[in-house]
Structure formats: C-alpha cells, structure tokens
Design brief:
Mean pLDDT: 81
Structural class: alpha+beta
Radius of gyration: 24 Å
Helix content: 10-25%
Largest sheet: 3 strands, mixed
Strand content: 15-25%
Strand order of the largest sheet: 1-2-3
Shape: elongated
Order of helices and strands: HHEEE
Low-confidence stretches: none
C-alpha cells in the first residue's frame, strides 16, 4: 500500500509548493517628469564626464559609472547621471 501513496504525496507536495512564490516588487511611485530638475543636464548626454565640472548640481546628485554598485531606493528628488564605459554621460534621470 505504501508505493501507491508516494506518487500521491509527491503530487500533493507540488500543489502546496505552487502557492509559494514571492510577490513582485511594487512599481516606483508616480513622479513628475522632472521632479529633480534634470532638464538642464539633459543636453549633456553624449558629453565626457568633465563637462560636469564646475556645474551647480542638486544636493542629492549621484554620478554612476558602469560598474558602480548603487542602492535601489527610489528618491524622486535625486538626480542620477550615468556614465558609459568611455566616461561619457549616457543617461540623466530622477530617482
């Protein structure tokens, strides 16, 4: 009688485990398109990093190189400036 119960127990375990999944992370909250005042920096896309020297940037600005580790906390008032592997500005965004 025991051999008959093994397939049934396996099926029951699979059914119970199918309900165990992580909920996806919630999407970031809606923000205004320019909540960190990135518009003045958009024109710098494609320029080398040294184009940022001497510019007055918001307090919460972070400049991100390709292999930098960054936090994933969402801050609508933070200006992010990404650099590509050649040290050129590739993206400017809030968050």
């Amino acid at each position: 009688m025991m051999p008959r119960l093994l397939p049934l127990a396996g099926c029951l375990a699979l059914i119970l485990l199918s309900g165990c999944k992580e909920d996806p992370a919630p999407p970031p909250p809606d923000v205004a398109a320019d909540s960190c005042d990135h518009a003045p920096f958009d024109a710098l896309i494609g320029q080398p990093r040294n184009a940022l020297e001497g510019m007055d940037m918001p307090e919460r600005t972070r400049i991100i190189s390709p292999h930098d580790m960054i936090t994933e906390d969402f801050r609508p008032d933070r200006l992010n400036i990404s650099l590509d592997k050649n040290g050129r500005i590739s993206r400017v965004w809030c968050g």
